[in-house]
Structures are given as C-alpha cells and as structure tokens.
Description:
Number of strands: 12
Oligomer: single chain
Helix content: 25-40%
Order of helices and strands: HEEEEEHEHHEHEEEHEHEH
Structural class: alpha/beta
Number of helices: 8
Number of domains: 1
CATH architecture: 2-Layer Sandwich
Distance between the termini: 68 Å
CATH topology: Ribosomal Protein S5, domain 2
Amino acid sequence: MSWFSPRAGLLALSTVLVAALLAVAATVPLPYVLTLPGATADTLGEHDGTPLVSVSGVPTRETDGELRLTTIVGTLPDSTMRMTDIVDAWFDGSEAVMPRTALYGTSEDVQEIEQHNQEAMTESQSAAVTAALNWLGLSADEVSVELSLEDVGGPSAGLMFTLGIIDTIGQEGLPELAGGRVIAGTGTIAPDGTVGPVSGVPLKVLAADRDGAEVFLLPPAECGDAEATAPDGLRLVPVSSLDEAIDSLIALSSGTGSVPSC
C-alpha cells in the first residue's frame, strides 16, 4: 500500500522546476565578459623596440629599475558568456568576470569601442605629459615628450606614464624613482596630478607579481580589491596624487620617511 503526500509532491515538483531553470540559465548568454591579467610595460624602457617615453629639448638621464604600467585583457563585447563560464571563473583566481558595460560601456560595436579606448589613452597620455612637466617646472615650449604603446587603450596608465616621464628627465636633487626596483602600478592622472580610480585592479596585481614587481602603486579606493589577490612580498602603496606617489617612491629608495600601505 502506498501513500501520496501533497507536500512531497510539491517538493518534487519544485526540485524539477529549479533543475530546469538552472539548466536553462546555464545556456542563456549573459551580459558579462571574462577578464585576465594582461601585459605590463616598463615606461622607462622599450616595447617592441620602441621607447615608451621619448624626450627631446632637455637632457635626460639613465635610470636603474622599472616603472611598469599594468593592463587587463577581456573577451570581446560580442562574445558569449554563460553561467558555467561565470562559475568556472569564480573558482579560478587568475580570472574575473565583469559586467560588459564596466569594460566596454554600452556599445557592442568593436570598432567603436576600440576608437573610444584609444581616445581615452590619448587623453590620458596628454594629461600625463602636462602633469609631469608641471611637476618638473618645465613648459611644452622647451621640451617635447612622445609616448608610445601599441594595442593598449583606456586611461589607467596615466600615473605610470607620468612617473616615467619625470624619472626620464629628472631634476637636480631628485633621486631615481624606481631606485633599482621593479615598480608597477595603475591609476588615471589629471593634469593637476590627481590620481583617479580604475577597474580590474585584482588582475593587474597578478600581472605585476608575474612580471617581478616588488611595489604596486594604486588609488586608495582600490585597496580592498587589490588585497584580495596580492601575494606575500608585493607591497601595495595607495597614492591619491602625483606628489604622494613620488614621495612614497623616494622614501622606499632611501629607507627613510613614511610610506602609506593598504
């Protein structure tokens, strides 16, 4: 003799419906992109045989160490992300899933996105030159600065380009900023030297560590995200301005003075 429980029947039906919904969700395209640690590039060195920072009109100096900008790479905006991809990335610490709009904005046109990112990089480089020359007390009439980096877009290299320009030109009494170390970082730069927030910091931390960085400069607002992936031995230094970044690097090189930490 068998007994049928209405409650058991509802539970079984609910289980079937949940399983069906999960099965459908696993195949439905979602508005996310997969991101990975990208390349880093030394603003005191060359990329594909071309100096990242070229200066004419004033003397320059040889420097020891590296000042590396960091990048992330992402799947194309028209690529398909499904729930299974998101779950896989969740358990893989070297990958991250971001809303498509966070990386590419609202456009899904690849050429339009590439143009937007290149324009953002151009504006960032212009701001980096202005901020660096202002800090050095130089004018664009007496010095020419050219910045070169192919296949990278967006504004987040601004801080490291600015530091690269300053360290390349130097000034009397200013020690080398890299100080023989591998310094990496990220952050936008405004012409007045203000450092702004960026995206993808946890992955940029991984890229910096992969390429031998000892110190990572970042906007203070990104400390929490950076700490999530920062390995032992990589020092996180939050800076909100160009002055703070330079003071921190000088203090690290000299071993004197205070250096902020996440």
